[in-house]
């Protein structure tokens, strides 16, 4: 569950509420009701003449927590101690958390339960297992057989919402297979060999005799490379059985 206050050293997403000559008041997006302050000395490296050259009201950015006043629920923050990479990563994570929260609301609605009930029943466990709720939704959207060890109505509802609302980015890789056979039924032997390449995300296209294009579509390059390696090995084994000479060249 989300903490009520961040810890010193945490990166937090903030919205600039008021810009003053000596600093800026902000609200912390991930911690409802918690305010923060960025002193002008923590806005940028070097001397800051005009703070409004760096900050504007309504702007969203990422800060590092320097100090936390628990009695007042206020936080001292630094903008200059966050680099560009950290800023991009944190904003991306925050957006994913927001989307996951909305998707969990859809799951709760379909189950006729509250978000809090869903949190206790399965969401907290999924965060522990996948690192974040959005990562769990992504995995559910891309898996044909998701969490076989888990049972319950929530699982079907979770997978349905994931597949309907998350588009998994895919990559494509492939190459050219050249297949020959001098047998009288050589064409049938070649077709039988190429049929071994069948499967989800795998496409075989005629590219002009004796060439055939093999394309693998997968969620990332590592998975695609492994799938392509397995496909080529299956084709090679089938070619030997069928008396077909085969060569593969990666595109």
| Name of the CATH homologous superfamily of the largest domain | Translation initiation factor 2, subunit 1, domain 2
What distance separates the N and C termini? 47 Å
What's the assembly state of these chains? single chain
Assign the CATH topology of the largest domain.
DNA polymerase, domain 1
- CA radius of gyration is 27 Å
Q: Count every helix, treating DSSP H or I runs of 4 or more residues as helices.
A: 6
CATH architecture type of the largest domain: Orthogonal Bundle
Uncertain residue ranges: none
Order of helices and strands: EEEEEHHHHEHEEHE
Overall 3D geometry? elongated
Write the layout of secondary structure elements.
Elements (H helix, E strand, L loop, with lengths): L10 E10 L2 E6 L6 E5 L20 E10 L4 E5 L5 H28 L3 H16 L2 H10 L10 H13 L5 E10 L5 H9 L7 E5 L4 E8 L2 H22 L2 E6 L1
Parallel strand pairs: 3-5
Antiparallel strand pairs: 1-2, 1-4, 2-3, 4-5, 6-8, 6-9, 7-8
Helix pairs in contact: 1-2, 1-4, 2-3, 3-4, 5-6
Brief overview:
This protein is an alpha+beta fold and 251 residues long.
Provide structural commentary.
The chain folds into 3 domains: 70 residues, Nucleic acid-binding proteins (OB fold (Dihydrolipoamide Acetyltransferase, E2P), Beta Barrel); 80 residues, Translation initiation factor 2, subunit 1, domain 2 (DNA polymerase, domain 1), CATH 1.10.150; 80 residues, Alpha-Beta Plaits. Helices cover 39% and strands 26% of the residues. The strands form 2 sheets. Strands 1-2-3-5-4 form a 5-stranded mixed beta barrel. β7 and β8 form a beta hairpin. α2 crosses α3. The relative contact order is 0.09. The model has no long low-confidence stretch (mean pLDDT 90).
């Amino acid at each position: 569950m989300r903490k009520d206050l961040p810890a010193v050293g945490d990166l937090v997403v903030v919205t600039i509420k008021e810009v003053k000559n000596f600093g800026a008041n902000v609200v912390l997006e991930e911690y409802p009701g918690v305010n923060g302050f960025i002193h002008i000395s923590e806005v940028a490296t070097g001397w800051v003449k005009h703070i409004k050259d760096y900050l504007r009201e309504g702007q969203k950015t990422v800060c590092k927590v320097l100090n936390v006043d628990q009695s007042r629920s206020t936080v001292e923050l630094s903008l200059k101690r966050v680099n560009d990479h950290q800023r991009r990563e944190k904003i991306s994570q925050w957006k994913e958390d927001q989307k996951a929260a909305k998707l969990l609301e859809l799951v709760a609605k379909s189950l006729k339960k509250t978000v809090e009930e869903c949190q206790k029943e399965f969401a907290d466990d999924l965060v522990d297992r996948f690192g974040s709720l959005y990562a769990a939704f992504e995995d559910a959207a891309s898996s044909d057989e998701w969490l076989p060890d888990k049972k319950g109505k929530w699982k079907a509802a979770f997978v349905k919402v994931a597949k309907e609302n998350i588009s998994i980015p895919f990559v494509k890789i492939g190459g050219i297979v050249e297949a020959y056979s001098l047998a009288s039924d050589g064409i049938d032997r070649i077709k039988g060999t190429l049929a071994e390449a069948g499967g989800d995300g795998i496409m075989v296209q005629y590219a002009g005799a004796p060439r055939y294009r093999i394309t693998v579509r997968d969620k990332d390059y590592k998975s695609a490379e492994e799938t392509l390696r397995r496909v080529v090995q299956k084709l090679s084994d089938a070619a030997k059985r069928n008396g077909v000479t085969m060569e593969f060249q990666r595109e």
